[in-house]
Amino acid sequence: MVSTSFLSPSSAWPTLIQGGMGIGVSDWKLARAVSRCGQLGVVSGTALASVLVRRLQAGDLTGDIRRALAACPLRAEAETVLHRYWCPEGRPDATPYAAAPMPRHDAGRFWTGLTALAAFVEVFLAKEGHDGVVGLNLLEKIQLPSLPTLFGAMLAGVDYVLMGAGIPRAIPGVLDRFARGEPAMLELYVEDDNPDRNAPPVELRLDPSDWVPGLPPLHRPRFLAIVSSHVLATSLARKASGRVDGFVVEGWTAGGHNAPPRGAPTNATTSEAPVYGPRDEVDLAALRAIDRPFWLAGSFASADRLASARAAGAQGVQLGTAFAFCTESGVTAELKTQVIALSRSGQLRVETAARVSPTGLPFKVLNVPGTLADPEQIVQRPRRCDLGYLRVAYRRPDGSLGYRCPAEPVDDYIAKGGDPADTVGRLCLCNGLLGTIGLGQRQPEDFTEPALITAGVDATELARFIPPGEANYTAADVIRQLGLPA
Ligand SMILES: Cc1cc2nc3c(=O)[nH]c(=O)nc-3n(C[C@H](O)[C@H](O)[C@H](O)COP(=O)(O)O)c2cc1C
């Protein structure tokens, strides 16, 4: 059992957090590289079941995944997954990947075990070979895989859990329960057009003893909530289901999803880029008053910005964009070269797209040719929902549960009772983001899903991380730029 040997080796707070970047951009290689330098490396927990099954079908030529699976206490599940998905020679390029089951409340034991295994693998590999700390990033908006992902990560001894894109009030309590070996529950968010229905809540549940008999107590990771305002931080500090150990406070220039501008509707109906203003500045005095450690995020990738954050009372900073294009990240080498060249030549544009993400949140997109930022690619790609991580549960007229995503084929969405206006401008983030890490699906129309690249406004200044005479840069180069030892 891995639990006791993986107790957190360090109780000191990190100065630098390498932000979780999905899907698979902050994979175990990047997190391990950062943790080895004494800072907090974070693996993305998003869509890990699909990442695992595709990596196995790509051959796992280095044997890393099979080594991690062999260390996992979920023995029967590891054997089944290996048997079902591993292609020793690697799957031929034109062959579609066999899919992981789509997330649902009733997805069943195979999906739950696969999801837990995938999180175990990612955290196990990130922690291997050093005694630094490793975190796991999850999004509140993607609820269905949360319990098995947290359980698998805790089996591998994860030190921190970081969660944003919503209000993760229930998660600290889940960590407490899993640490004691007790079952944990989450209430599934369900859209219901008929508020008079009085339907019972749908409970997601995972009992550790159903998976590992005789499990000893697990290390309870520290929980950091990712927020964009002190109001949410204060509410979480008071009302979460367990201890929130600190906060990452993210501004609107950050990569990935952003909070909508203060006062704007949460689900924009126009495709105009959101306009941020003084009301979106974080109230640092209010944040300090909460009296928990906090880290600032959103364009903090320099020694000066780190110093300003610390002067404002922050423990340190969280960076994403700077790490997204370093050699250890999951982004393909070709896309990194393309993004770095565009950044160096001043041609890289970072758009805050109001309508692209099915979540309804603003989402940063880079204008890289050949990716889904290119209108021609969007027109050519038939809408399809075959991964399903951003689907939301809804109640059918007969009371049963269905799942829909505003980026799926419009007719399907309407047939499920969805509002056609919701579908306008949406892109399939699941397929696009897997394309970014070289795991794009080969679709029946004979094309490979194109990438969709997200990053913050710092992407226009990547050249400053590249050592003289080099074409690219490492995670350690980023850390040194902040004046920290690496
Ligand atoms: C490629 C990319 C993917 C990201 N994905 C996630 C994610 O899955 N979950 C999350 O909480 N934050 C995500 N972020 C945000 C980062 O964790 C981090 O907070 C942010 O990048 C910090 O701002 P910066 O980009 O200006 O450094 C992502 C950022 C990037 C660049």
From TrEMBL:
<keyword id="KW-0285">Flavoprotein</keyword>
<dbReference type="InterPro" id="IPR013785">
    <property type="entry name" value="Aldolase_TIM"/>
</dbReference>
<protein>
    <submittedName>
        <fullName>Nitronate monooxygenase</fullName>
        <ecNumber>1.13.12.-</ecNumber>
    </submittedName>
</protein>
<keyword id="KW-0288">FMN</keyword>
<dbReference type="InterPro" id="IPR004136">
    <property type="entry name" value="NMO"/>
</dbReference>
<keyword id="KW-0503">Monooxygenase</keyword>
<dbReference type="GO" id="GO:0004497">
    <property type="term" value="F:monooxygenase activity"/>
</dbReference>
<dbReference type="Pfam" id="PF03060">
    <property type="entry name" value="NMO"/>
</dbReference>
<keyword id="KW-0560">Oxidoreductase</keyword>
